[in-house]
Design a protein that fits this description.
With 273 residues, the protein is mainly beta. The protein has five helices and eleven strands; from the N terminus they run ααβββββαβαββββαβ. α5 links the parallel β10 and β11. This is Leucine rich repeat protein.
């Protein structure tokens, strides 16, 4: 049975573009929906009744984004997926290694949940956007270096060496979340960066190097309560959008008027001081 509270939450973001979105079972698909309507599909195997991706998924001829549980990685096959598919989202936890013989060159966006996924460049050689959890040794950085990415999101960020290792991949957007880094030392290597999202870095205290990101247009800082020099933000001459959420007692109140005078297109400061 589907919990009604969960169902209500899903309905707000369900990918079935119908007049009345709802969670349905696989055996209802043919009678309930026109598969050509579907551009985003989430497979929710809540009770493990779905053991593999049904073969007819390749008939979803306009499918752009597919979300599956981690256990389905070993079940993926190129012939099962429609050629229109560009974004693959995988949810789960723990660790997993991508099958060595599974190559999906059409996928340009890969998003993983709270688990470590290891793959090679040849498995997904068309990637332009990647969201990934690093293992404790950040070994996947050696693979990431081989790409030319537009956007990269990393969790479990514990060493500043990441900034040097990703400096040549041409990033426009970077998100870093959950980790033990205390400064952004090395981020000046990312001189193409336009969007930076920093989330839940409880030890982060020093923002000084972001002042040298001359192309930075959007900055989001969330739940980083140890920052000691928020005034560095005032030096970002290209900044258009600023969001600061849940950053308490970091000295924002003393520079709030100056932030307000930056003539930003969008400014949002919530639960921060």
């Amino acid at each position: 049975m589907v919990d009604e509270k969960q169902k209500s939450a899903w309905q707000k973001t369900m990918p079935f573009f119908l007049e009345d979105p709802h969670v349905i079972s696989w055996n209802q698909i043919s009678e309930k929906i026109n598969k050509k309507q579907i551009t985003l599909l989430r497979i929710l195997s809540l009770d493990d009744t779905i053991l593999e991706i049904p073969e007819y998924i390749h008939t979803f001829s306009n499918l752009i984004e597919l979300e599956v549980p981690r256990k389905f990685i070993l079940k993926l096959e190129n012939k099962l997926l429609p050629s229109s598919l560009k974004t693959l989202c995988i949810t789960g936890n723990g660790q997993c290694t991508w099958p060595s013989n599974l190559n999906l060159p059409n996928i340009d966006t890969l998003k993983t949940g709270g688990f470590v996924l290891r793959f090679t460049h040849s498995n997904l050689n068309g990637l332009k956007n990647l969201v990934l959890k690093l293992d404790k040794n950040a070994t996947m950085l050696n693979v990431i270096q081989k790409y030319r990415l537009n956007s990269l999101g990393l969790t479990n960020v514990n060493k500043n060496e990441i900034f040097e290792k990703i400096s040549l991949i041409g990033l426009n957007q970077l998100g870093i979340a959950i980790g033990r880094i205390e400064s952004l030392s090395g981020i000046t290597n990312l001189n193409t960066l336009k969007i930076l999202n920093i989330t839940n870095l409880p030890r982060l205290s020093d923002l000084s190097e972001i002042q040298f990101l001359s192309k930075l247009e959007e900055l989001s800082i969330q739940y980083c309560n140890q920052i000691t020099n928020p005034e560095v933000i005032l030096k970002l001459s290209s900044l258009r959008k600023l969001e600061i959420v849940g950053c308490k007692n970091i000295g924002l109140n003393s520079i709030r008027e100056k932030i307000n005078s930056m003539n930003l297109e969008k400014l949002s400061i919530l639960g921060s001081s």
